[in-house]
Structure formats: structure tokens, C-alpha cells
């Protein structure tokens, strides 16, 4: 089981709890490739009965049919609306404002206050910048970029609270932890890239073997995740002196290809996968 809950995450959770009485609505950002695994159970506890909009971010990396299934499942929950977002189409202000108005009655004085929450590296700061139309929040492709709460005014009627990404202490079941690691929500200091890559290769062999064959120009897939990783390393020139395959480098190359969409639009979990979880 993978766990990563450094001290700053516990601090973030405490500060969010203290600020929550001032919040009208919660916007929870999920990774569209792993909506179940990227949904922090602590957020439902923190928001209480406040309405919530769940945004499936990085939609352009996920299977569109699976994403449609997730949207339908999420919107069966009372007080929760769902929508998608991708960085390539950042203009979502109008869609988001319409959903906020559907959940929160118009206020006579002052703007609506919404808090943006989510796991590390899910794209909260990128979303803030898309909504504001300017680079306000610091972004990056590593977890734990945002460390302090910051407030951003969007037009006259909306104030967004950006918050640090945080996980929950026990990532269970184990597959959730590995999906989080594959998509970059868990620091690469916690688990070796080879272990993460083997988990992702096992999934690809089971669900999308043709994409592995095509992308890495393989005629057949060898038996076992490590053998597949070695084949990827061979095809991508991840070699040490003497022609020995550098497995750590091969793992990082594969994970980079997977997360950049090089292997196509892939959802790492479906509603059917998570129905008993």
C-alpha cells in the first residue's frame, strides 16, 4: 500500500477546516483518468452539506466514453454537479458560473465564495489561471506546488480560494495509490518509477495491448511486466554501458509517454472497476 502524507498536508487540512465556515460552495478538481482514486474522502467530510461542483480535469487525456460514464455517475449524488475541463480549452467561466448559480442562490451583497480543493498535481492552479484569464497561481508538473491558501477574484460575483493539494493518510485499496502514483499525485521520492511503471504496464497489457505494440513498434509483447519494460527500454535506447538496459530510465520514459497522451486517451479506471470499492 502506498502512502504519502507529509506534514504540510496535515497543515493544509487544518487550515481548510478553519476556513470552511466562510465558504458557500466547494469546487473539487478530479483527474478525469482516475475520478474515483483522485476523489479525496476527507473533502466530503470537510465540506459537510455545502454544494459541490466536481471538475474532471485533464479530460483530453482520458477516454471520452469512460468520462461520460463518470459524469453520469457523479451527477446522481444530491447537491453535486459535474463538468469537464482541459487545458487546451480554458474558457470555462460561463459554464462554471451557470453551475454555481444552479447550486447557490444569488446573494444580495457580496460575491459567492468558492474553495477549490483536490489532490496534488491535479491541476487546481491551472484551473485558477484559466478562470481568471491570467497567470496568478503557480503551476508545475510536480505535486505540492501550492503551499499557501490564496484568494482570487473572478469578475464581480465570484471569489475563489486556491488551496494546497492534499491526500488522505491511508490510500486504500492499494490500486488507488498506484493510480495516483502513475498520474503524478504522489511524489516520485516515495516509490520507484519501476514499480509504478510495472503497475501501469500490467493495466496496458490487459486493456490496451495494441497501443503498446504500436507506440513502441513491437511485433509481440513479451511475458511479464518487467520483460515489457525491458523491451520498451531497448526500443527507446535506454541503455547503459555495455548495452545493459537502464530500467529506471525506461520506466520514466514509459510513464512520461503515458501521461503526455502518447499512448492515446486512456482512463485508468471505469465506474465498473470501482463499483464494489
What does this structure look like?
This protein is α/β, with parallel strands linked by helices and 277 residues long. It has two domains: 7-162, Rossmann fold; 192-274, Conserved Hypothetical Protein Ylqf, Chain: A, domain 2 (Orthogonal Bundle). It is built from eleven helices and six strands. The chain has helices spanning 7-19, 41-47, 64-74, 93-103, 124-132, 174-182, 193-207, 209-215, 225-235, 247-259, 271-274; strands at residues 25-31, 52-57, 80-84, 112-118, 150-154, 158-162. The protein has a six-stranded mixed beta sheet, sandwiched between helices. The longest helix is centred in the C-terminal third of the chain and has 15 residues, at 193-207.
Structural class, please? alpha/beta
The rounded distance between the terminal residues' Cα atoms is: 15 Å
What is the helix tally?
11
**Mean pLDDT over the residues:** 85
SSE string, helices as H and strands as E:
HEHEHEHEHEEHHHHHH
State which percent range the strand residues make up. 5-15%
Query: What's the total count of β strands?
Result: 6
Shape summary: elongated
Tell me the helix content. 25-40%
Q: Tell me about the biggest sheet?
A: 6 strands, mixed
What is the CATH C level class of the largest domain, in words?
A: Alpha Beta
CATH architecture annotation of the largest domain = 3-Layer(aba) Sandwich
From the alpha-carbon coordinates, what is the Rg to the nearest angstrom?
20 Å
Strand order of the largest sheet: 3-2-1-4-6-5
CATH topology of the largest domain: Rossmann fold
**Domains counted in the coordinates: how many?**
2
Corresponding CATH superfamily of the largest domain: P-loop containing nucleotide triphosphate hydrolases
Low-confidence stretches: 139-147
Amino acid at each position: 500500500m502506498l502512502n504519502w502524507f507529509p506534514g504540510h498536508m496535515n497543515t493544509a487540512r487544518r487550515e481548510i477546516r478553519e476556513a470552511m465556515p466562510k465558504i458557500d460552495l466547494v469546487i473539487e478538481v478530479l483527474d478525469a483518468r482516475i475520478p474515483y482514486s483522485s476523489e479525496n474522502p476527507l473533502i466530503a467530510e470537510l465540506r459537510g452539506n455545502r454544494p459541490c461542483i466536481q471538475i474532471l480535469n485533464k479530460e483530453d487525456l482520458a477516454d471520452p466514453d469512460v468520462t461520460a460514464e463518470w459524469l453520469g455517475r457523479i451527477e446522481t449524488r444530491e447537491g453535486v454537479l459535474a463538468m469537464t475541463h482541459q487545458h487546451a480549452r480554458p474558457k470555462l467561466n460561463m459554464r462554471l458560473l451557470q453551475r454555481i448559480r444552479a447550486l447557490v442562490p444569488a446573494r444580495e451583497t457580496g460575491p459567492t465564495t468558492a474553495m477549490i480543493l483536490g489532490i496534488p498535481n491535479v491541476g487546481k492552479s491551472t484551473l485558477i489561471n484559466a478562470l481568471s484569464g491570467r497567470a496568478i497561481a503557480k503551476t508545475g508538473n510536480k505535486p505540492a506546488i501550492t503551499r499557501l491558501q490564496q484568494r482570487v477574484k473572478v469578475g464581480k460575483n465570484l471569489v475563489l480560494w486556491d488551496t494546497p493539494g492534499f491526500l488522505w493518510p491511508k490510500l486504500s485499496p492499494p490500486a488507488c495509490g498506484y493510480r495516483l502514483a502513475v498520474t503524478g499525485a504522489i511524489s516520485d521520492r516515495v516509490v520507484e518509477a519501476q514499480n509504478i511503471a510495472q503497475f501501469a504496464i500490467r493495466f496496458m497489457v490487459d486493456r490496451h495491448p495494441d497501443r503498446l505494440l504500436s507506440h513502441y513498434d513491437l511485433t509481440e509483447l513479451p511475458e511479464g511486466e518487467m520483460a515489457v519494460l525491458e523491451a520498451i527500454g531497448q526500443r527507446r535506447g535506454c541503455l547503459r554501458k555495455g548495452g545493459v538496459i537502464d530500467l529506471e530510465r525506461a520506466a520514466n520514459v514509459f510513464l512520461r509517454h503515458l501521461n503526455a497522451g502518447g499512448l492515446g486517451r486512456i482512463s485508468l479506471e471505469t465506474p465498473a472497476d470501482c463499483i464494489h470499492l
